[in-house]
Specification:
The protein is mainly alpha-helical. Helix content is 72%, strand content 4%. Strands 1-2 form a two-stranded antiparallel sheet. Keywords: Coiled coil.
């Protein structure tokens, strides 16, 4: 369940990113992350920044796909119903990613320096 949702990134996604962002000297504290404890403010910031980058990348890929779908919808008329379904799913995905991006931004602002 490494996902982005309307309420932000999943706990598992954030946990993986926190472990991934551990500095060498923090690695022995990795079990603290698994039980929900913070290792350091730097680790919190780094993992949130990485989550934001990942979310942004997914939004960009989604927008490119939506542009391609739009182009196909204009070129092909006989399969437009199926493409419209795909476009609807992509629009919903974009809304979810945008909501997650906003949650992440708020989380980063609230993270101590």
């Amino acid at each position: 369940n490494l996902t982005f949702g309307l309420d932000g990134p999943s706990w598992r996604l954030l946990t993986v990113l926190k472990v991934f962002c551990l500095r060498t000297e923090e690695y022995l504290q990795r079990k603290n992350i698994l039980v929900g404890l913070s290792v350091s403010a730097d680790n919190e910031r780094s993992s949130l920044e990485l989550a934001e980058k990942l979310c942004s990348q997914l939004m960009n890929e989604n927008l490119k796909a939506m542009q391609e779908i739009s182009k196909l919808l204009n070129e092909i008329g006989d399969v437009s119903e199926q493409l419209e379904v795909v476009a609807t799913v992509r629009r919903e995905e974009l809304k979810i990613l945008q909501a997650s991006a906003e949650v992440l931004q708020n989380m980063r602002v609230a993270t101590p320096r």
